[in-house]
């Protein structure tokens, strides 16, 4: 009887351990929200783009690049991970954006060492 209880306990502990490991392996920094939002039609002037992720970011290995509708890189300030919220990266704009479509390309390294990248678009009216 004691052996059966011990085997059951060990089986449950093993399953819980595997589940915890699987959760850690899936802890990538995914884009949670952005300002402006994906597919937004912006009617007011922007001073910056703010991207918020699900995990903390490594500043030295995270960046954001803004491109216009022709694919040309838009001059901006340097993208910086927020000191108040390590899950946010902010891209300062140095000039007002002209009307048109824009693509935001990002790549980040989360504090747990996982790289992710992606993009989204918005339109200035």
UniProtKB/TrEMBL annotation:
Transport among the record's keywords? no
- Entry keywords, A to Z: Copper, Metal-binding, Periplasm, Signal
An annotated Gene Ontology molecular function: copper ion binding
**One cellular component (GO) term of this entry:** plasma membrane
Q: Where can this protein be found?
A: Periplasm
What range does the record give for the signal peptide?
A: 1-27
- The chain positions of domain CopC read 28-123
Keyword Metal-binding (UniProt) = yes
Principal place where this protein is found?
A: periplasm
Task: For this entry, list what GO says about its biological process.
Answer: copper ion transport; response to copper ion
Q: Which PANTHER family is this protein grouped with?
A: INNER MEMBRANE PROTEIN YEBZ
Q: Family, per the entry?
A: Belongs to the CopC family.
State the function annotated in the UniProt record: Involved in copper resistance.
Q: What protein name applies here?
A: Copper resistance protein C
């Amino acid at each position: 009887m004691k052996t059966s209880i011990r085997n059951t306990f060990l089986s449950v502990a093993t399953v819980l351990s595997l589940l915890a490991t699987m959760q850690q392996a899936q802890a990538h920094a995914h884009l949670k929200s952005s300002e402006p939002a994906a597919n937004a039609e912006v009617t007011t002037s922007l001073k910056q783009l703010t991207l918020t992720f699900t995990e903390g970011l490594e500043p030295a290995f995270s960046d954001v690049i803004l491109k216009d509708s022709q694919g040309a890189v838009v001059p901006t300030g340097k993208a910086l991970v927020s000191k108040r919220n390590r899950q946010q990266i902010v891209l300062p704009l140095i000039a007002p954006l002209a009307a048109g479509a824009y693509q935001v390309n990002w790549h980040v390294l989360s504090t747990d060492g996982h790289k992710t990248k992606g993009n989204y678009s918005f339109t200035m009216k």
